[in-house]
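User: Could you go from structure to sequence for me? I need the amino acid at each position, not a summary. Structure tokens:
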């Protein structure tokens, strides 16, 4: 009987000592900080880039607003091909400019998606598989674009028009 009583007292002691103590702490007060004043970033003006090789010229000028939206102009004057020039409207996604290039060539208006990788203060044109839908040529998979450094547009002074 003493053994049973001893075991019961030990078990009861262990049971009581394991019981969690109810604490009455006050809830943590979270004070919201005042909203930060919106920082208005004005476009830095046109940025101009060009590539020239053996009489061929690619010129690009654009500005980027605070929402990383890009608008500007792009022109290709490649030896042996008709010159085309038009507008560039798109977005900066990290270090990559993805835009729709709307241009006229041989009297026909066309829209083609273009991509340029910003690297070391210059832009490298991207290439990849394309698809045509709704009269627009787009990249099939932007994650598989290849950027060829032989087509690197370097920063130049913008022409005053």
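Assistant: Here is the amino acid at each position, in order:
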């Amino acid at each position: 009987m003493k053994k049973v009583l001893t075991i019961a007292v030990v078990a009861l002691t262990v049971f009581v000592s394991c019981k969690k103590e109810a604490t009455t702490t006050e809830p943590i007060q979270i004070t919201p900080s005042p909203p930060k004043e919106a920082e208005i970033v004005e476009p830095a003006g046109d940025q101009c880039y060009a590539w020239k090789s053996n009489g061929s010229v690619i010129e690009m000028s654009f500005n980027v607003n605070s929402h990383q939206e890009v608008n500007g102009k792009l022109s290709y004057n490649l030896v042996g091909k008709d010159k085309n020039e038009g507008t560039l409207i798109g977005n900066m996604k990290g270090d990559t400019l993805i835009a729709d290039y709307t241009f006229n060539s041989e009297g026909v208006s066309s829209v083609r998606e273009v991509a340029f990788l910003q690297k070391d203060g210059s832009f490298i044109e991207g290439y990849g598989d394309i698809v045509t839908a709704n009269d627009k040529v787009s990249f099939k998979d932007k994650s598989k674009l290849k950027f060829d450094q032989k087509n690197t547009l370097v920063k130049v002074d913008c022409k005053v028009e």
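One structural detail worth keeping in mind: Residues 53 and 159 are 19 Å apart (CA to CA).
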